[in-house]
Amino acid sequence: MPSHGLEHWRRLCEQALPHPGHADLELAGRTVADFFLKDFADLGERSVGRTAGCAEMEALLREPPPEAGMPFTEAWQSFLTKVAAYSFRPGHPRFLAFIPSAPTYYSVLGDWLCAGLNYFAGVWKEAPSAAQVELVVLDWFKEFLGLPATAQGILTGGGSEANLTALVVARERLPWEHRAKARLYTSEHRHWSVDRAAKVIGLHADQVRRLAADADYRLTPSSLRDAIRQDQEAGLVPWLVVANAGTTNTGTVDPLDAIAEVCRESGLWLHADAAYGWPAVLIPEGKSELHGIELADSVTLDPHKWFGQTFEAGCVLVRDGRLLEETFRMRPEYMQDVTPDAGEVNFCDRSIALTRRFRALKIWLSIKTLGVAWYRRLIQHCCALAEFGQKLLEQTPGFEILCGRQLSIVCFRYVPAKLQNETEEALNRFNLALCAELTKTGRAFLSTTLLNDRVALRFCFVNWRTTAADVEEIVKLLQRLGDELATRFRYS
Ligand SMILES: Cc1ncc(COP(=O)(O)O)c(C=O)c1O
User: Fold this and answer.
1) Does 354 score more than 60 pLDDT?
2) Under a CB-based contact definition with an 8 Å cutoff, are residues 440 and 62 in contact?
3) Which residues line ligand 1 (CB under 6 A)?
4) Number of C-alpha atoms within 13 angstroms, CB side, residue 421?
């Protein structure tokens, strides 16, 4: 750069950059706020959404970055026609695929506030209120689950990150010379993020033992005990068990207290993956089903699943909370000004992220505004929907329950009279095709899984908007579409 005097440089930067003024910001803000108000009022009356192929999306959205901007209203029109129209809405009352997510209005506002404030939630001294709100929310979760006061945690981007964080903490306890021999035990129905976390921390595929579940899709303590014994005899190092507290496929909860006992006997770390199922502890039925979760060494929970939060809201809690910081804490020079004093928490010391959103705000705002009682009703409502869905399927000709209600999930398939004598392979193709036909209607969105080699459709209820009428509509639609499909279906 040429050498200029002080005044030259002052002139170049004496003005802030132009940014739209109050009127423009107000219009943009109101447009978005109105959109969400309408969205909350009538989401269920609209399409559940649609997918699109790569060519369609390229044709709609590919463009060079515009050198000059455009009025917000124009960008908004592009958003409405080219973006909003081409995605499914996980909060739609008839979106029952995978594990949906139906954020409360206060979660959406909390996320907006979080973005607008943009607090740095990595270190205490920069945003002590954000850190304290996160500590309070984590304490509420600990209390719900019955974890001891020694437990500490952190909010993560989701369950995958939480599972990984727990595995890293547990691995820290393993002496280096044991790491190659360490064995992780889990059920064949674990979530695949466990396999990925194992891979990320450097385990070989054969260090993860995926044990066969029983006929009810549960990990059995006896098979776990046997596997541990075999590995001990082979000179390996049984290290950690990942138990399910609500599998993604069926909602099944492994026998957590008995598994905790096996872990205690042999000195293994117990990690409970409760990403989906954890809020069930808010009601007596769920509390007894998840009994033993309070004994886990670490727990994954995803508020963005069955707790009305926007993506991304995950959480990991570690029973001996000090281990989190012992595992992740670093003290680089340029952060010497934000070294925490006693009692203060730098959340960047508890996981891999340094820069973090103020995720706790949306959860805090939702719980404070709606109260825990609302959440209890949410869990009861979703379990009742699943019970209703199962009964309705049982009473509707052609439907077969493949796994009865577990928490708020039901798995089933449709076998119309015309297909009664078909092979399992043909029924699988038929049910995959039926699910795709349902999606095309835009009225509902389900997903499928495989249970004992059979394609199963799933109902997963986590949404406060969903009603019995929604379930009835889906069952009727499946029956009508299924019967139509059966007349033109190629069986072989
Ligand atoms: C049981 C279970 N564990 C972990 C995960 C991963 O969570 P996330 O998608 O938030 O990363 C899921 C996601 O569906 C899950 O169902």
Assistant:
1) yes
2) no
3) 99, 158-160, 163, 191, 193, 248, 273, 275-276, 302, 314
4) 0
CATH dotted code for 372-488: 3.90.1150.170
207-235: pLDDT as tens digits: 999 999 999 999 999 999 999 999 999 99
- Residue 348: pLDDT band with limits 50, 70, 90: very high
Looking at 267-359, list the stretches that DSSP marks H as alpha helix, in order from N- to C-terminal side. 284-289, 303-306, 322-328
**40 Cα to the center of ligand 1, angstroms:** 26
Q: Which atom of ligand 1 is nearest to the CA of 158?
A: 10
| C-alpha of residue 145 to centroid of ligand 1, in Å | 18
For a pLDDT cut of 90, what percent of the chain falls above it? 98
- Where residue 489 falls among pLDDT bands split at 50, 70, 90? confident
- pLDDT at position 437 is 97
Place of tokens 């505004």: 369
Residue 77 has pLDDT above 60, yes or no: yes
Per-residue pLDDT, 337 = 95
Q: Which amino acid is at 438?
A: L
Which atom of ligand 1 is closest in space to residue 190's alpha carbon?
A: 1
Strands in 32-189 per DSSP E: 152-156, 182-187
Domain residue spans of the chain:
120-357, 372-488
- CB contact burial 170-205 (16+ within 10 A = b; e otherwise): bbeebeeeeeeebbbbbbebbbebbbebbeebebee
Q: Please say if the pLDDT value at position 492 is more than 60.
A: no
- Give the ligand 1 atom nearest the CA of 302: 10
The β-bridge relationship of strands 409-414 and 399-406 is: antiparallel
Q: 71 C-alpha vs ligand 1 centroid, how far in Å? A: 39
Task: Give the Å distance between the CA of 336 and the centre of ligand 1.
Answer: 36
How confident is the prediction for the chain on average, in pLDDT? Answer: 97
Average pLDDT of 271-295?
98
Among 99, 186, 458, which is best to mutate for testing ligand 1, by the most ligand atoms less than 8 A from CB? 99
Residue 275 CA, ligand 1 centroid: distance in Å? 6
What percentage of the chain has pLDDT greater than the value 70?
A: 99
Atom of ligand 1 nearest to the CA of 277: 1
Looking from the CA of residue 98, the nearest atom of ligand 1 is: 14
The Å distance, Cα 192 to ligand 1 centre, comes to 8
Q: How many CB atoms lie within 10 A of CB 226?
A: 12
Choose which CATH entry (3.40.50.620, 1.10.10.60, 3.40.640.10, 3.40.50.720) describes domain 120-357: 3.40.640.10
Identify the band that residue 3 occupies on the pLDDT scale cut at 50, 70 and 90: confident
CB 51 within 8 A of CB 445: no
